Automatic annotation (TrEMBL), chain A:
GO molecular function terms attached to this record: L-isoleucine transmembrane transporter activity; L-leucine transmembrane transporter activity; L-phenylalanine transmembrane transporter activity; L-valine transmembrane transporter activity
Main subcellular localisation: membrane
Family the UniProt entry places it in: Belongs to the binding-protein-dependent transport system permease family. LivHM subfamily.
Organism: Rhodocyclus tenuis (Rhodospirillum tenue)
Keyword annotations: Amino-acid transport, Cell inner membrane, Cell membrane, Membrane, Transmembrane, Transmembrane helix, Transport
Name of the protein in its database record: Branched-chain amino acid ABC transporter permease
Taxonomy of the source species: Bacteria, Pseudomonadati, Pseudomonadota, Betaproteobacteria, Rhodocyclales
GO terms (BP aspect): D-alanine transmembrane transport; L-alanine transport; L-isoleucine import across plasma membrane
Places the protein is found: Cell membrane
Segments crossing the lipid bilayer: 6-32, 39-55, 61-81, 93-116, 136-160, 180-208, 228-255, 267-286
From TrEMBL, chain B:
Secretion signal span: none
InterPro entries named in the record: AAA+_ATPase, ABC_branched_ATPase_LivF/BraG, ABC_transporter-like_ATP-bd, ABC_transporter-like_CS, BCAA_Transport_ATP-bd_LivF, P-loop_NTPase
PANTHER family given in the database record: HIGH-AFFINITY BRANCHED-CHAIN AMINO ACID TRANSPORT ATP-BINDING PROTEIN LIVF (PTHR43820:SF4)
Alphabetical UniProt keywords: Amino-acid transport, ATP-binding, Cell membrane, Membrane, Nucleotide-binding, Transport
One term of GO molecular function: branched-chain amino acid transmembrane transporter activity
Protein name stated in the entry: ATP-binding cassette domain-containing protein
SMART domains: AAA
PROSITE patterns, per the entry: ABC_TRANSPORTER_1, ABC_TRANSPORTER_2
Gene3D superfamilies linked: P-loop containing nucleotide triphosphate hydrolases (3.40.50.300)
Span of domain ABC transporter: 5-237
């Protein structure tokens, strides 16, 4: 029983981590809290569903297509909305509010196009296998979700840690001015970051859509709140923090639902987050918050 | 003597306030030129405009015969104008080696980048010893060495330095200035912006004195050092 729950928690936690990774990446590099990330997650889910049901795409292709579509939305948000705000030196709250608007627009658009009811992937499109390890039922689907999440995260970690592009992104995160003076096209990398982050958010949406096999226009809202909690817990802008924080939230939620109260799962999970932040206000990996004069 | 950088009537404004009010000056290839003046005279603003981080209100910047006034910052670096910004602007969350490698961001020639890295380590052996430490853990002098070394990694044709002596102990200032002379001897053109007027004019072939956004004196470094007006205003009488 416990092993089964741990598997569920790992599945959920890895998707939370993937979602939070894109979220924290945008915060780290662009210094924007992008509140349309939840809606982009929802769009990814619908995009994959549409590709599977209307174009008979195989699931892997639908996942790639969903990444492309959600990534493009992220790119457009940056080019059309965030860039003009940057050019005007808009204070921090403005881009955040603007992205709330984007989220509402995307949610309404999805509702207009697909209706408000719960949609599901056709049964035959899901990976069907299931096998038993010890006393745990492992669905091929869950394995695929965990594998996809961890492969994408490993690719991103390697990119950030080991490549010139990754060093450039870290440079921008610390000081855009210093980055420009190094010959880095900061605006260009803002666009790249927005695309990649939204693509990660979109694929997380597909994976959650598959795991629960339920897609609704509102599905981005709860995960947005969880994503915020995760990156605050992990340390704003820190990608290790997003991974650890996402897994933590997945485990806290599943375990408390299984052993404490099915209704109170979220309350317990968020209560734990609150306690951790009381002890470590800047998050697990956060640099000490400095007050800038 | 060929001219590497020519600036004509450069004006830069913050909102409605003009911080730089029409500078005209030039740098000769292979020389150290100093731009000196008091705090707030417009020196840093001028450098930021040369690097493309501030857009001039009017005027023209010509580098190597090409108009670079409207180019974005990253393309100016690619053409060989590289700035060591005020306050050292090193990346404290990256290691020393990562800072240096990132300095070569605009270059793609792997073998030559490796050669440049060896040159920088030869110039600043202390950076090699600390290659894997976070740059934020370096002392002030070492951070300035890193900032200069990182700029050299871009293979500049013109090095712009904004107050390299700021916040450093006198002995470290001496060392940094010696290094600048050495780098210049190897052929690099340098524009040195300083409040430390005496030190800057000592190593500069030419100098410009800037006050409230305008050039008030232009002469050889030597003559400026001997000029009574400079003596009175900047060298403490």
């Amino acid at each position: 029983m416990l092993e089964q729950q741990l598997l569920n928690a790992l599945t959920l936690g890895s998707v939370y981590a993937l979602f939070a990774l894109g979220f924290t990446l945008v915060f780290g590099v662009l210094a924007v809290i992008n509140l349309s990330h939840g809606a982009v997650f929802m769009v990814g889910s619908y995009a994959a569903l549409a590709l599977v049901t209307h174009f008979d795409a195989p699931l892997w292709l639908a996942i790639l297509g969903a990444m492309l579509i959600s990534g493009t939305i992220g790119l457009l948000v940056d080019v059309l909305i965030l860039k003009p705000l940057r050019a005007r030196n808009a204070p921090h709250l403005i881009p955040m509010i603007a992205t709330i608007g984007v989220g509402i627009m995307l949610t309404s658009a999805a509702q207009g196009m697909f209706g408000a009811e719960v949609l599901r992937f056709p049964e035959e499109t899901l990976p069907a296998g299931e096998f038993i390890v010890g006393n745990v039922h492992v669905r091929a689907l869950e394995l695929a979700i965990v594998a996809i999440a961890f492969i994408l995260m490993a690719v991103l970690f390697t990119l950030i840690k080991r490549t010139q592009l990754g060093r450039a992104l870290r440079a921008i995160a610390e000081s855009p001015k210093a980055a420009w003076l190094l010959g880095i096209n900061v605006e260009g990398l803002f666009h790249v970051t927005s695309f990649v982050a939204a693509a990660l958010g979109g694929v997380a949406g597909v994976l959650i859509g598959l795991d629960f096999n339920a897609i609704t226009p509102q599905m981005g809202q709860p995960i947005l709140h969880k994503g915020i909690a995760v990156i605050i817990l992990g340390g704003m802008g820190d990608i290790r923090g997003a991974l650890i924080g996402g897994l933590f939230l997945g485990f806290a939620e599943v375990i408390s639902k299984a052993y404490l109260s099915s209704q109170m799962g979220d309350a317990v999970a968020f209560g734990l987050l609150f306690l951790i932040l009381l002890v470590r206000p800047s998050g697990l990996f956060g640099r000490k918050l400095e007050r800038k004069a | 003597m060929s001219v590497l950088l020519r600036v004509r009537d450069l004006a830069v404004a913050y909102g409605h306030i003009e911080a730089v009010k029409g500078l005209t000056f030039h740098l000769n290839t292979g020389e150290i030129t100093a731009l000196v003046g008091a705090n707030g005279a417009g020196k840093s603003t001028t450098l930021l405009a040369l690097s493309g981080l501030l857009k001039p209100a009017r005027g023209k910047i010509e580098f190597d015969g090409e108009d670079i006034t409207a180019l974005p910052a990253h393309q100016i670096v690619k053409r060989g104008v590289v700035q060591v910004a005020e306050g050292r602007a090193i990346l404290t969350t990256l290691t020393v080696a990562e800072n240096l490698v990132l300095g070569a961001y605009t270059r793609t020639d792997k073998a030559e980048i490796a050669a440049s890295l060896d040159e920088v380590y030869a110039l600043f052996p202390r950076l090699k010893d600390r290659a894997d430490q976070f740059a934020g853990n370096l002392s002030g002098g070492e951070q300035q060495m890193l900032a200069i070394g990182r700029a050299l990694m871009a293979k500049p044709k013109l090095l712009l330095l904004d107050e390299p002596s700021m916040g450093l102990a006198p002995i470290m200032v001496q060392e940094i200035f010696r290094t600048l002379v050495e780098i210049n001897r190897r052929g690099l053109t340098i524009l040195l912006v300083e409040q430390n007027v005496r030190q800057a004019l000592k190593i500069a072939r030419h100098g410009y004195v800037i006050e409230t956004g305008e050039i008030v004196l232009a002469d050889s470094g030597e003559n400026l050092l001997a000029n009574p007006k400079v003596e009175e205003a900047y060298l403490g009488g």
